[in-house]
Design brief:
CATH architecture of the largest domain: 3-Layer(aba) Sandwich
Distance between the termini: 32 Å
Number of domains: 3
Number of helices: 14
Number of strands: 19
Helix content: 25-40%
Structural class: alpha/beta
CATH topology of the largest domain: Rossmann fold
Strand content: 15-25%
CATH superfamily of the largest domain: P-loop containing nucleotide triphosphate hydrolases
Low-confidence stretches: 293-298
Largest sheet: 13 strands, mixed
Length: 444
């Protein structure tokens, strides 16, 4: 029970008895005093059950979760001790501990995440769409592949297949022409699992989801079947890639949270956004090219994240990275048209990187890869471009690659490689450590 000092203890004690009587088989283990002293002292006597306290409401709840290990947290507090925003943060703490959280007219249950994987697993989750999850997943896969332990990736996406699909880069036609043919058959040929397979070079299983709850649960999905398929694979570790703000609906032994630098701190660490932070072993902050110069000046969510996990023994580490466009084939000396989901404000920086680092001449670009009509209009002005350099996202295949191939242009897929800017270590070292921690937890 969560109680406050704005209620008389006798009123609270009666409420606890009444609620226990109405809940068949329920046992009230104790209470956490969240604050307030108008009608009670600081000790919490008179409630008829053991009471724990804390310096803040969150600290009191944490003490209660640790002391009583409840299946359900029932909130008997109210304004002014707890407002709606603070209450949702408490909900996040309860859900992360595996406890349901209920009150007078609401209830939140932990999103189901059953233990289905028969090998260690790392979840890559994000705060929303286009945060850089696929880039992070692909680089984690390459890091593990380079050290001789390639993972199998299970990717969940809005455009995933109706039945889980295994994409083995050694056997699946992942060429631009092959994917255009796939799109012609009615498939979403730029689905996340196809991008993962192209960019990482490891076996990837595609699954789908629809809808998303406040704590990241999908309304409908076929991820469990995808995990079952991955269990039968020879790889020793599984990477579970989320979709948007949805968390893979299966247990993961370790978790990486990807957050864009421009994210609203209140949504990342406040409300139920805090749930994702509390799941994380590593937080990867993806910095856009145009934000890099201001990254040391603008206050981000990181201070809030530090305060959120204050008192937690294993705080998540944080690394700030920038995503660099990296063509998968040589483009030096060639005239290119570049298509991306990045905002127009990044145009000059991205073009300069492709020219200076990869030797291309950028003669045109489109930042409308996720807007088919505008993308078609942009491609109509491709001029004398010889090569389409395109991210494998959104309309990359059914519009961009299709039109480029029809015009006799070459098509080169473009990865977004992770480059460490600052933080608690290099990205590659930190994600490898997360994978090692997943193995340790799985084995313990």
């Amino acid at each position: 029970m969560l109680v406050d000092g704005e209620h008389y203890p006798s009123v609270v004690a009666d409420a606890i008895r009444h609620l226990a009587a109405r809940s068949t088989g329920a046992v009230v283990e104790g209470a956490a005093l969240l604050g307030g002293t108008e009608k009670v002292g600081g000790g919490g006597a008179g409630y008829g059950v053991p009471v724990v306290t804390g310096d803040t409401p969150e600290a009191a709840l944490r003490a209660g979760l640790e002391e009583f290990r409840p299946d359900l947290v029932f909130d008997l507090s109210d304004e002014p001790v707890i407002d709606a925003r603070a209450r949702l943060r408490l909900v996040a703490w309860a859900l992360a501990a595996g406890a349901a959280y209920a009150g007078a007219d609401f209830r939140f249950d932990p999103p189901p995440r059953p233990r289905l994987a028969t090998k260690p697993s790392v979840a890559i989750i994000g705060t929303g769409k286009r945060t850089g999850k696929t880039a992070v997943s692909a680089q984690l896969a390459r890091v593990l592949k380079d050290r001789g332990t390639p993972p199998v990736v299970v990717a969940m996406g809005r455009g995933g297949p109706a039945e889980p699909e295994l994409v083995d880069p050694a056997r699946f036609d992942l060429t631009p022409a092959g994917l255009v043919a796939l799109a012609a058959s009615g498939r979403h040929a730029a689905s996340d699992h196809l991008e993962d397979a192209v960019m990482s070079g490891v076996a990837t299983i595609g699954t789908r989801r629809c809808g998303g709850g406040l704590a990241g649960a999908p309304a409908d999905d076929n991820v469990a079947a995808g995990v079952a398929m991955a269990n039968d694979r020879p790889e020793s570790l599984m990477v579970l890639e989320g979709s948007g703000q949805c968390v893979p609906p299966v247990h993961a032994d370790a978790t990486v949270l990807v957050v864009p630098f421009t994210a609203d701190p209140e949504l990342v660490t406040g409300h139920l956004g805090a749930y994702r932070v509390l799941l994380a072993d590593l937080i990867v902050v993806t910095i856009g090219a145009t934000s890099l110069a201001a990254s040391g000046l603008r206050a981000s969510f990181e201070g809030d994240a530090g305060r959120l996990v204050q008192g937690v023994s294993a705080k998540p580490r944080i690394v700030r990275v920038i995503l660099r466009p990296t063509p998968l084939a040589p483009i030096s000396g060639r005239r290119i048209f570049y298509a991306t989901t990045a905002p127009p404000a990044a145009r000059a920086h991205l073009a300069a990187h492709l020219e200076h680092e990869h030797g291309a001449r950028v003669v045109g670009s489109s930042h409308n890869l996720a807007n088919r009509p505008l993308l078609e209009a942009d491609l109509a002005g491709a001029g004398n471009a010889e090569v389409l350099v395109v991210e494998l996202k959104a309309a990359a295949i059914d519009v961009a690659a299709k039109l480029a191939l029809q015009r006799g242009m070459d098509v080169v897929f473009c990865d977004n490689r992770v480059e460490t800017v600052s933080g608690d270590g290099s990205f590659d070292e930190l994600v490898a450590a997360v994978a090692d921690e997943a193995v340790r937890r799985f084995s313990s």
